[in-house]
Amino acid sequence: MRFLHTADWHLGKLLHGVHLTDDQRYLVDQIVEIADDADPDAVVIAGDVYDRSVPPADAIELLDDALTRLVVDIGVPVIAIGGNHDSAERLDFGSSILERQGLHVFSRLRKKPGHVVLEDEHGPVHFLAFPFAEPAMARSVFGKSDIRSHDEVLAAQVESASDLLPDGERAVAIAHVFAQGGDLADSERTLSIGGAETVHISRFQRFCYTALGHLHRRQHIGASNGEAPRHVRYSGSLMKYSFNETGHDKSVHIVDVDGDGTCEIETIPLELRRDLCRIEGTMTEILDGPADHVDPDDYIWVTLTDDGPVHDAMSRIREVYPNALHIERPRRVETNKLQQMTGDASSLSVDEVFETFFTYVTGRDDMPEQQRDILHDALERKHKES
Predict the structure, then answer these.
(1) How big is the CA angle at 214 (ends 161 and 251), to the nearest 5 degrees?
(2) 239, CA 20 to 30 Å: which among 16, 93, 333, 345?
(3) Does residue 261 come out as left (phi exceeding 0), alpha (psi in the -120 to 50 range) or beta?
(4) Where are the domains of the chain?
(5) Which CATH architecture has domain 2-269?
(6) What is each CA distance from 114 to 22, 92, 107, 287, in whole angstroms?
(7) Phi/psi at 179 (nearest 5 deg)?
(8) What is the 8-class DSSP label of residue 161?
(9) How many Cα atoms sit within 13 Å of 368 on the Cβ side?
(10) What count of other Cβ atoms lies within 10 Å of the Cβ of residue 30?
């Protein structure tokens, strides 16, 4: 049995106000091509298909096109679940009809999980769908008042699947959770306050492979006690959705499951239409031209290190980097030092207060002579006016 594992497409995503639909289409096209070449028995999408509960029209059109090409043109079944960004009701619309065509969407929490059985030469493989759900919803669905955490939600979901899994038959779990030990990225929405959002991977002990969504970095989750399930993996998000994810590599997994449930996983990289990069320097250095490792067409976060004001910075930077999205000016004031300076101010002259504040803000040892002269002239004019 072979299937493709992907997750966290976040169609309709905005990055610093810029629509990413064209970038996402470029990547979704690659996934369709990979599926066409690899000839999997299924494509698994582990949640957060959309970025928000009411997705824009172009995101809906992109998903419709991708699913049509996969299910109708290529003829590969798709099994998708809802994530915490998705609207369960919207994503679930028409799922009963579409299931007959090979599109299996499980976005709403039910007493019995979504269950798809595919056959290969060794027999059946069970795909169990565990969509994201809040504890309050799970208490209502399962009739258990003691469900308080996401781990307890997952426990109830897995328990409800137990009678669907005959002994000895292979099973794959699909879930959208924050697995304990996972590496959270900046662009991922926190599921809850405190530690109640994490789930124990021991919940997946019954499954030969667990296809996870929610965490945007590709990663393999293992237990410290050495008793981890065989394969609990995040495929990672479709593309980089935060400048804290610049070091991520984006990919999908091709999973081959043999007759006894042993899995071989091939990671296939995705090529980004535009990368996310950070550059740092003075305005003069930035305008000198792209650094060796930066494509000027990438999405750029600029950290300007100039001490003084910089006029019309973004429009000037976009002459070199047309897709620059953000400019950062580091603040060098340390709170404890600023409080200390405030306490000592009463014993300083006005000139000394300004000069001391300048050194704290800029990190310099003292104020340059030219700037000191400007300060003194300004203070002298102010004194004469008063």
Answers:
(1) 110
(2) 93
(3) left
(4) 2-269, 276-328, 335-385
(5) 4-Layer Sandwich (3.60)
(6) 32, 12, 9, 55
(7) -75, 140
(8) T
(9) 7
(10) 19
